[in-house]
Design goal:
alpha/beta, TIM Barrel, seven-stranded parallel beta sheet, two-stranded antiparallel sheet, 35% helix
Length: 330
């Protein structure tokens, strides 16, 4: 499965512009220019207040990361229309304190990884680039699983070359290929890990049972499933990750807002805090769980700054509860 707003039926998800048109039409309050804004925590937060998370016990990441899918061309295909702008977005993310960048060989394909290296290599100390393999792109809008061991080994080597790395800090199986036994797919990643090419392994678009099967082969440090205010279908997986101290990376973190009533709790909180509905959606996720690692993606510096500023928003327990009640609506 692809990430963010592309679903398994190859239908594009709701865009930021459409969501905003359906909710609060107002300007976003941006915080702090180039200042690093992570670390603001509220004693009133219903749950999580920790600003960082330890991936695998040895990689400290700020919990609000960046998803590098949208820096590619239209339809997640080819080079972006404005390559220089894409490079500036990546550099600005790091300036703002982001040190977890999520990508995949399927984004472009290959384009996202190449842009990351062009913009950021040599990489600053502490930057974690998490990439993925196991989905192929025969054409625009097409996402075809390929979990064959020989393909995954080639995918790891390809990502290493494009990212100019000797070892990948976090490599994630992008999806489970139903035509290939999971143990075979993961076995090839274990070989690459044993060869020193992968530091930690994560999974994407998986069930709790599949996580448990994977953990019989090697430690799993993260899971990346769709999760947002409306879509809590992976709630059980999130609870499992909390119990086992695994990072949970929600894709499409801002969610859809489809069918919400005009005066919903997200709009109300956004208006009261003087921020955008997208910032509220991210703030809600950060307070939802200490293992939550949202990776909102964008090709716009203004939207990037807006997203990162969400780490400063402290929803009251009443606000958080009201938003939490929106699960499944629409």
């Amino acid at each position: 499965m692809p990430d963010e707003s592309v679903d398994t039926k190859q239908n594009p998800g709701i865009t930021r512009r459409t969501f905003l048109g359906r909710t609060l039409a107002g300007g976003a309050a941006l915080f702090g220019g180039s200042d690093v804004i992570f670390g603001a925590a509220s004693a009133a937060a219903p749950m999580a207040t920790n600003p960082t998370f330890q991936l695998g016990g040895d990689l400290t990441v700020n919990r609000l990361g960046f998803g590098a899918m949208r820096i590619t061309g239209e339809g997640i295909w080819g080079w972006p229309a404005d390559r220089d702008k894409a490079l500036k977005v990546l550099r600005r993310a790091v300036e703002l304190g982001v040190n977890l960048i999520d990508t995949a060989d399927a984004y472009g394909p290959e384009t996202s990884e190449l842009l990351i290296a062009e913009a950021l290599y040599p990489y600053p100390k502490g930057l974690v680039i998490a990439t993925k393999g196991g989905l192929t792109r025969p054409g625009p809008g097409q996402w075809v699983p390929n979990g064959r061991p020989e393909h995954l080994k080639q995918a790891v080597d390809g990502s290493l070359k494009r990212l100019r790395l000797n070892r990948l800090d976090l490599y994630q199986l992008h999806t489970v290929d139903r035509k290939v036994p999971l143990e075979q797919s993961l076995g090839s990643l274990k070989e690459m890990q044993d060869a020193g090419k992968i530091r930690h392994v994560g999974l994407s678009n998986v069930s709790t049972q599949e996580i448990e099967r994977a953990r019989k082969i090697f430690p799993i440090v993260s899971v990346q499933n769709e999760y947002n205010i409306q879509d809590r279908s992976s709630e059980g997986v999130l609870v499992y990750c909390e119990k086992e101290s695994l990072g949970f990376i929600p894709w499409f973190p801002i969610g859809g807002g489809r069918g919400l009533k005009p005066e919903n709790a997200v709009e109300t909180a956004a208006r009261d805090h003087g921020v955008s509905v997208f910032q509220v959606a991210l703030a809600w996720l950060l307070q939802r769980s200490p293992v939550m690692l949202p990776i909102p993606g964008t090709s716009s510096i203004a939207h990037l700054e807006e997203n990162v500023a969400a780490a400063k928003i402290n929803l009251s327990p009443a606000e958080w509860k009201a938003i939490d009640a929106l699960a499944g609506q629409g």
